[in-house]
């Protein structure tokens, strides 16, 4: 008999899992809170092992076409003077010609296109309650509909509702990394094209990223803060005011950016943090991607872990008819890879965002050195997992 699964979240890990589970004979439903596929355009990286996942899905050529050809990263001092201008690969340890950087919305659209004809999508809805008291999962949706599934998977991101309803509040699994950030788009009045400009003072960074020759740039304001600003996280006005106060008196284009932040209708404010959990499943419900093991944007590995994690979960379910054995295999085979990638950053110690005068000087010395070198070696963590062949249908 065909088994059915409900996946909550239609971004990166959700549709990837849907693709591989459909391939191994599952009937798949995906529920997404948003009214349509979210096309937010900030750039994300696909590297190492994750490249193999998208290759096996047949979308690597499309993603190569969508690759953002970022040509330069220019670092600026407090007054806007140039510190160094280097190749992006040299900074992040990605492999030129292999690893990819694409707009998040482009990746989500390609993944969705792979499954939309075979998988049921329920937009503008979400899971209200999960009841595992029988040999199945009884789901009540926010819309009031009730359905029953063999399994449920939460692919609903860093602030996962599935995780909260299964394991309790986020605080116990959230590891704050000492930074807050605001991300928004603003007019490209700077004439930037295919490049990133980053201004730093100790504990503060402002970046403008022109993904192509567009009329808009991605603006990014990041700052160090020992404790998370719990109140501001729930209040958009307080978020803007906190950013404005933090960057008051800053040089370069920062005052212009702060003004644009107040006008932006797409402001995304959050803390940089990771999700670390002792287990990624409970009964017939499992978590995948950021919901289970968000590594934070500081590693640039969130989308890669989401792709690889979804593949590994689907593979474990294809290889093990028993879901308990499958979930155990998923954790056993993925946990080291997750741990290595989460270990790429430590609290307040992100290479690109130094928090002290000394750390900033050291980073600038390193960047000036990179200017004369071809490229930094790729990070071993990016490729530390060799993907198993996809298990045949049981
Ligand atoms: C500013 C920023 C920069 C980043 N840069 C990079 C980068 O350079 N490289 C990189 O690899 N990663 C980066 N990331 C992280 C990357 O976007 C995530 O790690 C990755 O998208 C995780 O995918 P996911 O599908 O698991 O979760 P998400 O992409 O968070 O998707 C979760 C989905 O679930 C939906 N959802 C949420 N709640 C519910 C609910 N209750 N019911 C139903 N649906 C729900 C959401 O609408 C969303 O569609 C960045 C993130 C941010 C915020």
UniProtKB/TrEMBL annotation:
GO terms for molecular function: FAD binding; monooxygenase activity. Gene3D superfamilies: D-Amino Acid Oxidase, subunit A, domain 2, FAD/NAD(P)-binding domain. Pfam families: FAD_binding_3. It comes from the Bacteria. Keywords: Monooxygenase, Oxidoreductase. InterPro entries: FAD-bd, FAD/NAD-bd_sf, FAD_aromatic-hydroxylase. This is Monooxygenase. It comes from Streptomyces lincolnensis.
């Amino acid at each position: 008999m065909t088994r059915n699964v409900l996946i909550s979240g239609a971004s990166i890990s959700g549709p990837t899992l849907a693709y591989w589970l459909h391939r191994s004979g599952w009937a798949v439903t995906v529920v997404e809170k948003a009214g349509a596929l979210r096309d937010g355009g900030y750039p994300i990286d696909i590297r190492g092992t994750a490249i193999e996942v998208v290759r096996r899905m047949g979308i690597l050529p499309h993603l190569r076409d969508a690759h953002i050809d970022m040509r330069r990263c220019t670092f600026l001092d407090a007054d806007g003077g140039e510190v160094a201008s280097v190749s992006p690969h040299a900074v992040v340890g990605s492999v030129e010609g292999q690893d990819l950087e694409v707009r998040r919305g482009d990746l989500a659209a390609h993944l969705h296109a792979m499954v939309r004809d075979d998988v049921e999508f329920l937009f503008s809805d979400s899971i209200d309650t999960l009841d595992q008291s029988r040999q199945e999962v009884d789901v009540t949706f926010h819309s009031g509909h009730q359905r029953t599934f063999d399994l449920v998977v939460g692919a609903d991101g860093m602030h996962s509702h599935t995780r909260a309803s299964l394991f309790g509040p986020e605080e116990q699994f959230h590891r704050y990394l000492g930074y807050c950030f605001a991300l928004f788009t603003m007019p490209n009045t700077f004439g930037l094209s295919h490049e990133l400009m980053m201004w730093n003072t100790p504990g503060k960074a402002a970046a403008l990223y022109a993904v192509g020759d567009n009329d808009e740039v991605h603006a990014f304001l990041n700052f160090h803060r020992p404790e998370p600003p719990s109140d501001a996280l729930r209040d958009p006005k307080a978020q803007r005011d906190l950013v404005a106060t933090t960057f008051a008196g800053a040089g370069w284009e920062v005052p212009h950016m702060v003004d644009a932040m107040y006008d932006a209708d797409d402001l995304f404010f959050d803390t940089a943090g990771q999700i670390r959990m002792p287990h990624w499943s409970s009964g017939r419900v499992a978590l995948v991607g950021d919901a289970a093991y968000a590594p934070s944007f500081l590693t640039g590995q969130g989308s890669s872990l989401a792709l690889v994690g979804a593949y590994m979960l689907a593979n474990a379910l294809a290889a093990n008819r028993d879901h308990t054995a499958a979930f155990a295999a998923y954790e056993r085979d993925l946990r080291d890879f997750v741990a290595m990638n989460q270990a790429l950053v430590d609290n307040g110690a992100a290479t690109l965002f130094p928090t002290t005068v000394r750390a900033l000087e050291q980073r600038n010395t390193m960047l000036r050195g990179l200017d004369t070198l071809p490229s930094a070696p790729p990070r071993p963590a990016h490729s530390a997992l060799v993907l198993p062949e996809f298990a045949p249908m049981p």
